[in-house]
């Protein structure tokens, strides 16, 4: 994909990203400007190639800890809705980006937060069906 001019790759599985990150590091060290978007957890450290520079632009994080906390809290409070499909998404803070994003500008982070807040306020609808 990088050979065809793609500047950033966002894979769908964290383990798969390691190969993409390795390739991106090689290309950046050789003078190209390419990026990787991490997935599932903050993969910034996986992309470090020189000092604290990383080829990981940001990561799309699944906050499993937040989902587990919400489920446990609901169970403790007698509010766990057993037998129902539960959705964990931006509305309940179960997905997002890392709290620190050295490769993103403050303006970009502000825009991401603006979009997340609009999702929470139902100003933007995220389809859950294909």
Automatic annotation (TrEMBL):
Of the GO CC terms on this record, one is:
plasma membrane
Q: Which InterPro entries match?
A: BMP_lipoprotein, PnrA-like
Give UniProt keywords alphabetically: Cell membrane, Lipoprotein, Membrane, Signal
- Localization annotation: Cell membrane
Q: What is its main location?
A: membrane
ABC transporter substrate-binding protein PnrA-like domain span:
1-127
| Record's protein name | ABC transporter substrate-binding protein PnrA-like domain-containing protein
> From which residue to which does any coiled coil extend?
none
